[in-house]
Amino acid sequence: MSEPPAKRSKMESNTAPETNPYLAHRQEYQNGNGLSNGASGVTGSVDRKEHPLNGMVPRKVTVDQAKKIMDGEVNPFKNLSAWSSNYKKILEQRKGLPVYQKMQEFLSVFNENQIVVMEGQTGSGKTTQIPQFVCYSDLPMLRGKMVACTQPRRVAAMSVAKRVADEMDAVQLGKQVGYSIRFEDMTEQGTTFLKYMTDGMLLREAMNDPLLERYSTVILDEAHERTLATDILMGLLKDIAKRRPDLKIIVMSATLDVAKFQKYFGDTNPTGLAPVVKVSGRTFPVETFFTQEPENDYVEAAIRTVLFIHQAEDEGDVLLFLTGEEEIEDACRKIRAEGEELANKGMAGPILAVPLYSSLPPHQQQRIFDNAPPAGKDGLPGRKVVISTNIAETSLTIDGIVYVVDPGFCKQKVYNPRVRLESLLVTPISKASAMQRAGRAGRTRPGKCFRLYTERDFVKELEEQTHPEILRSNLSNTVLELIKLGIKDLVHFDYMDAPAPETIMRALELLHYLAALDDEGNLTPLGAIMAEFPLDPQLAKMLIVSPEFGCSNEVLSLTAMLSVPNVFMRPASQRKEADLAKAQFSHPDGDHLTLLNVYHAYKSNEDDAKNWCWQNYLNQRSLAQADNVRTQLKRAMEKFDLELCSTAWEDRNYWNNIRQALTCGFFMQVAHKEGEKGSYMTVKDNQVVRLHLSCGMDTTPEWVLYNEFVLTTANFIRTVTEVRPEWLLEYAAEYFDPESFPANSETRRALQRVLDRKLGKVSSSGHGKDRKEKKDRDGKDKKKKRKAE
């Protein structure tokens, strides 16, 4: 696969004209009054006096100056080439957006204030237009800097960047306008000046650039979604603003809790409130319908409603909200099949069903903007149906939507720190989300919203707002990033909503056991490297220690496979065939090794990947993504001089070495078999669990390590591999000290038996010499110490 462009390195603010393409028309500023009169001429048909940026001073640009460039003949950001006809067509569309009418007010407030809150209703155009307005006023390219615009989701970052690149008449996406998401950086050093990125990527950049020096303005878009990364960024940016008076910050939100943002960022303002610019949306009335009774199967009810709309309602596209990829793809198939049947019977026109979710490739995401199919032979209108996760609530605007079908659910991350359980659960949405969804139907004309729940449930059961992610997440990765940023007082960090102290303590505990933090809470050398990997701490630890076991190449592949959506496909109508196909890759020792077998087989059949994946019921998109992730992680390994090595295939320890590396990262996710009925008890947290049905092991080993805790009708552990208790005692001696378990627990007795057997002793108490042995069992000289015993 071709490598993405290298990441942009910091350019000094006094970059010379000959090294900065945007400075070709000038040599210096004079007393802050724009371009110097002695500036050199410009190559091409436009001389220096006619250059569009002539006389413009960063952050003093007027709306008339900006509009003059937009309506001019040449593109100042692309070698003074003439604006294309497509640019002029799009510009006319942009002028119709509500936010365009607010350009003068926005530039006035932006130029005069360091921090601005932007309240823009969905469909106002703020996500695409405000960053462009900033570029015209801030002129970051003249100082070798960039404007960053964060998005909560990767789909939005990619899609919006493409749209804005078109609007700015850029040569191609990744040049003047680019994006950066985890494992993919589509920017060009020295050329990109407007970068859309996920909030998590900007947070990671801050670890190596604590003052975000490469940026002149940072825009936090969709701040009302209150993702974990956005909440942490808000606290960091408040602090950075005090140390960098030249940094501008814009917080953009839908009409939810704007006053809270104003107050949070208003510390330095005499009024105690940050200034706000308000933009209304371009909406029409939306008629809302509720069901009379709750629906037992919301997916089937949603499909039924879509087909009813297609048959009975006037032309106009449909937006259906579902919770995840599996639901969405299943609904797409059924809508296509039943829609085709209706069309063949002459009961409805042709139908186009297109999915939208985060892991969808960019070229497939763009299909949501396709036109509805033309009318059929009988004149019945064609219709487009977009089936999406909640990304379509606010992050993306799809013109042509007239009907919204809202079952009232979404997937949310939920974390219980007491049992260290983080699950992705299907939960009811909030009233705020329901209002956002309904608003999508009134973008271009009056619309209708069909809510598949009762009006009573809407009023009585739905909460007003969605809880911020920081209050319902495992914070281990966030705590590691904050400590890497030099923030020690995690309890008193300037959170907009502070997480529970217990959640922070659990994160610190995990990082301590992983040896990422020392006893004083400082980063260890291992922890400093772990923080640099865009992975959960357990995966990062496993990968970093893998060279010690001679299996870093294999663990690299396994980590990539664990970082992408499920590779196994199991269609409802072909489950037996899919299970047989999966069985050929199955490894008796566990699912992690099965994943490795799949990856190796995929690489061996890469020349015919599409056909091979189809025959073996594997998701080609996920496997290709895993290959890309592996390439990025391999670069990180090389950056830290971590050896890339493999144990010889014929070596009997080949698989054991991989399992030992796994143990080093995931020893806190281990379960011990209890009784003969196949149930397990998670170590320390004491949750009774069973192996998930997708588990490929034929046996039920005494000790297993798991990747995921699944909470459905019962507690299950998924992606499971057998581990040996000797490894737990060797690589996590403190965590698995038998004396740290209740005296009467089966886990303690099992660990003590292993320890006694290992030491050649017979003891049932777990005291005396055994206790001393545990303390001695640590450090590089442990073999020597054991011999002395």
From TrEMBL:
Segments of skewed composition (Polar residues): 29-43
Domain of life of the organism encoding this protein: Eukaryota
Domain Helicase C-terminal: 302-486
SUPFAM superfamilies linked to this entry: P-loop containing nucleoside triphosphate hydrolases
Signal peptide as annotated in the record: none
Biased composition (Basic and acidic residues): 1-11, 767-781
Gene Ontology biological process terms from the UniProt entry: spliceosomal complex disassembly
UniProt-listed InterPro entries: DEAD-box_helicase_OB_fold (IPR011709), DEAD/DEAH_box_helicase_dom (IPR011545), DNA/RNA_helicase_DEAH_CS (IPR002464), HA2_WH (IPR048333), Helicase-assoc_dom (IPR007502), Helicase_ATP-bd (IPR014001), Helicase_C-like (IPR001650), P-loop_NTPase (IPR027417)
CDD domains named in the record: SF2_C_RHA
Name of the featured protein: RNA helicase
